[in-house]
Specification:
Keywords: Membrane, Transmembrane, Transmembrane helix. By secondary structure, the chain is mostly helical. It has one domain. Helices cover 79% and strands 0% of the residues. The chain has four helices and no strands. The chain is elongated and about 65 Å long.
């Protein structure tokens, strides 16, 4: 397993807790809650795919971009994930520039 930026872990945890809270929260209008659960579960699923690509594969750049773009849905909370993914992309770009100069 790779060591990722801590903000990625925090953002994923917040997104999952948000989805869990929407699923647990009861409401008089069940249709609205179903819509919210579906609306939130799609970007959380995409977020998780990006996290898995970051953590378990060699295509970290794609995983960071997927995580970053799917975090935009959760503004302002999603900015934590965007910041973490941006830091990972900056690190990848620095490494590629360093390797090109060698």
């Amino acid at each position: 397993m790779k060591k990722l930026n801590t903000l990625i872990y925090i953002a994923l945890a917040i997104h999952l807790v948000l989805l869990l809270l929407i699923g647990i929260e009861g409401s008089d209008d069940e249709d609205v809650m179903k819509f919210l659960a579906i609306f939130i579960s799609i970007p959380v699923s995409i977020n998780f795919i990006g996290f898995c690509l970051l953590q378990f594969t060699s295509i970290s750049k794609l995983g960071a971009k997927i995580f970053m773009y799917s975090s935009y849905i959760f503004v302002p909370i999603g900015l934590i994930g965007v910041t973490g993914a941006k830091k990972i992309l900056d690190d990848i770009n620095k490494k590629s520039i360093t390797n090109e100069n060698l």
